[in-house]
């Protein structure tokens, strides 16, 4: 529209002014006054408002898209997801000063073995705190100092630095349920005349006798250790003329975790170690943290038998209300200590229970985060009876964890530790290989108990002091009398004489050794398909389990394990002939010998053998309707909602 002559007569400050119309464009060269006149017209005001609104809306939309994308994007994998957790029993790993006791500097001297030979990034140490060692360090007398035979706090700092320099992480054992009876808190708590008694008197669980004397036990609660019939969990204290509660040995009084001061002390201890640089905690015996205030008797499993820990349902002594709030508060603390880039503080919890829901609860809920994972002992719970190690039962065990695990959580698999007979002793060498083969190829974090990787076995000695000593003997580094654990020394526990054959040095040079199998699998599992890919449990028979690891755009692998020691097995996979080609290539075998191509549709697996077979897929198992409920992928750690793999 071209303005008419009259349009350019405007009033400015009460004076009418004639303005020169300029004709070389519709509004070109208009003076400010004229522009203002037009711009105030309703139609222009509207147009302008609409445009401004559009710009603001577009910015908001873009912003929310960015926020949404960040929110749904998969997180980079954390350290506990990319490496197995290698458990070191400090007394038995390596002794640097030849006093017969393993120590921190001994551990430092073996980091190349862990990091370079085994590709391990995460190490968990059983307790190294000062302790009278009634329960091998699980009776802590000072959470802020190191047991002198293990070394000094300076050694500990060096260990943390050495590990971090190698890109490795350190998990400490955290013992919140009880202290040693030699802890200064217990000393003050148990002595009414102690100058600090007032401050510490409620740090432990003190209960009056029912008859005023040491015979008036408060109830029938029994202690886990020594675990015989009639081992009351109550110990009489003459000074206070009261009983104190101990879920474990009497030298391990339970802390009163209903006391806020105690909770604060524990958080301060965690903070102390995180300030020192530790990367997380394995939290000990959490189920025992609270006891019912009602002090009701636990029901007996068998009324005709005397009370014992094994013969009672721990209805009033384990997994009581309130336990999860405590764990969640630790998670909050760990989060505060995870704010620096690249720093993440990890938590795993030790809870044994037959009820899977009770275990899973330690993952936390959608609203209340707790552990990164509760330790998964299902494979240990299977027991030692060879008939329990059927393909069907292993499948049921794997599915039990995976199907009950809350969405987006991370699985883990433990097959041995310092409280259980060693894997090879329980299952024999070949089946132990099969079991490690399983945990190293499933999705999730495998645990490796020191020496498991070379096939160490239990050794029962005559002068055994703890019933778990057989699985805690010195690491077998070589075939010398003291196994290279120490030199010219007497190890604190006798060396298993089978170190002649079973030792790291020999295993390193033997291409078919258990160690070589571990090395192969640890290498393989650093591939993205194993780290983040789908796990689809494809089929099982009485003898074998077959599962697949797959992921968009990466190599697919079939894992087939026959646990039976008698005969080979054939697993029918013809139902998947659109996905599986005729044959695939064996890329790892538990016997370190079997190789070549293998027919896949009727898959043959030798007795007590595990195979990883790579194949050119014709599709994805996780997209098959028939696989519903059998495929698992913690989505957040794999691909984002638009199907892109997060590269970290
Ligand atoms: C945990 C430890 C075990 C210890 C007990 C008491 O179960 O693994 O070794 O004896 O707690 O602290």
Using brief descriptors, characterize the structure shown.
648 residues, alpha/beta, TIM Barrel, Immunoglobulin-like, 3 domains, eight-stranded parallel beta sheet, 19 helices, 16% strand, disordered N terminus
Please, what is the CATH homologous superfamily of the largest domain? Glycosidases
Distance between the termini: 58 Å
Q: Indicate the low-confidence ranges by residue numbers.
A: 1-6
* Tally of distinct domains: 3
CATH architecture of the largest domain: Alpha-Beta Barrel
Report the count of strand segments. Answer: 24
In angstroms, what is the radius of gyration? 33 Å
Q: What does the average pLDDT come to?
A: 93
Basic shape:
globular
Bound small molecules, by name, code or SMILES, are:
alpha-D-glucopyranose
List the total number of helices: 19
Largest beta-sheet characterization: 8 strands, parallel
Helix content: 25-40%
Question: Which structural class fits the helix and strand makeup?
Answer: alpha/beta
**In CATH's first tier, which class of the largest domain applies?**
Alpha Beta
Instruction: Report strand order across the widest sheet.
Output: 13-12-11-7-4-3-15-14
Domain Glycosyl hydrolase family 13 catalytic: 87-525
Transmembrane segments: 50-72
Pfam families: Alpha-amylase
Organism: Phallusia mammillata
């Amino acid at each position: 529209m071209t303005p008419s002559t009259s349009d350019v007569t405007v009033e400015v400050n009460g004076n009418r002014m004639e303005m020169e119309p300029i004709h070389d464009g519709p509004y070109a060269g208009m003076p400010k006054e004229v522009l203002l006149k037009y711009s105030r017209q309703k139609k222009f005001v509207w147009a302008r408002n609409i445009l401004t609104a559009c710009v603001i809306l577009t910015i908001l939309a873009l912003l929310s898209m960015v926020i949404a994308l960040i929110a749904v994007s998969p997180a980079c994998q954390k350290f506990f997801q990319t490496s197995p957790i290698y458990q070191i029993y400090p007394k038995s790993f390596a002794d640097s000063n030849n006093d017969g006791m393993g120590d921190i500097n001994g551990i430092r001297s073996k980091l190349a073995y862990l990091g370079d030979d085994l590709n391990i990034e995460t190490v968990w140490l059983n307790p190294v705190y000062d302790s009278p060692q009634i329960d091998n360090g699980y009776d802590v007398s000072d959470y802020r100092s190191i047991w002198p035979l293990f070394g000094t706090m300076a050694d500990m700092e060096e260990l943390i630095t050495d590990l971090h320099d190698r890109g490795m992480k350190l998990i400490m054992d955290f013992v919140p349920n009880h202290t040693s009876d030699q802890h200064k808190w217990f000393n003050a708590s148990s002595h009414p005349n102690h100058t600090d008694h007032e401050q510490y008197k409620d740090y432990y669980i003190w209960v009056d006798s029912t008859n005023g004397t040491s015979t008036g036990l408060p109830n029938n609660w029994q202690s886990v250790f020594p675990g015989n019939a009639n081992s009351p969990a109550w110990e009489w204290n003459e000074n206070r003329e009261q009983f104190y509660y101990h879920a474990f040995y009497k030298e391990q009084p339970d802390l009163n975790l209903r006391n806020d001061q105690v909770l604060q002390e524990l958080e301060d201890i965690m903070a102390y170690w995180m300030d020192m640089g530790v990367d997380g905690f394995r939290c000990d015996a959490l189920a025992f943290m609270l006891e019912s205030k009602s002090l009701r008797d636990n029901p007996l499993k068998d009324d005709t038998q005397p009370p014992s820990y094994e013969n009672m349902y721990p209805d009033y002594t384990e997994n009581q209300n309130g336990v999860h709030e405590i764990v969640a508060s630790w998670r909050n603390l760990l989060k505060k200590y995870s704010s620096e880039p690249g720093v993440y503080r990890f938590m795993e919890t030790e809870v044994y229970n037959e009820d899977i829901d009770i275990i899973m609860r330690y993952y936390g809920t959608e609203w209340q985060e707790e552990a990164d994972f509760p330790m998964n002992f299902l494979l240990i719970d299977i027991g030692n009876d060879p008939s329990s190690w059927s393909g069907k039962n292993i499948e049921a065990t794997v599915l039990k964890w995976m199907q009950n695990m809350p969405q987006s959580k991370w699985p883990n698999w433990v097959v041995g530790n310092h409280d259980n007979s060693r894997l090879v002793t329980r299952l024999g060498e070949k089946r132990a290989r099969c079991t490690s083969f399983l945990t190293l190829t499933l999705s999730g974090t495998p645990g490796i108990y020191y020496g498991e990787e070379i096939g160490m076995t239990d050794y029962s000695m005559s002068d055994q002091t703890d019933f778990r000593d057989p699985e805690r003997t010195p690491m077998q580094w070589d075939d010398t009398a003291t196994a290279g654990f120490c030199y010219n020394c007497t190890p604190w526990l006798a060396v298993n004489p089978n170190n002649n054959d079973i030792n790291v040095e020999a295993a390193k040079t033997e291409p078919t050794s258990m160690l070589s199998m571990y090395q192969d699998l640890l290498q393989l599992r650093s591939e993205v398909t194993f780290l983040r890919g789908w796990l689809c449990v494809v089929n099982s028979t009485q003898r074998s389990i077959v599962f697949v690891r797959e992921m968009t755009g990466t190599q697919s692998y079939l894992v087939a394990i026959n646990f039976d020691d008698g005969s080979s097995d054939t697993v029918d996979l013809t139902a998947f002939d659109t996905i599986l080609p005729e044959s695939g290539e064996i890329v790892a075998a538990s016997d370190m010998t079997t190789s070549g191509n293998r027919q896949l549709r009727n898959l043959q697996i030798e007795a007590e053998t595990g195979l990883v077979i790579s194949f050119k897929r014709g599709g994805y198992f996780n997209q098959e309707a028939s696989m519903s409920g059998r495929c698992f992928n913690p989505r957040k750690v794999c691909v984002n909602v638009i199907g892109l793999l997060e590269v970290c």
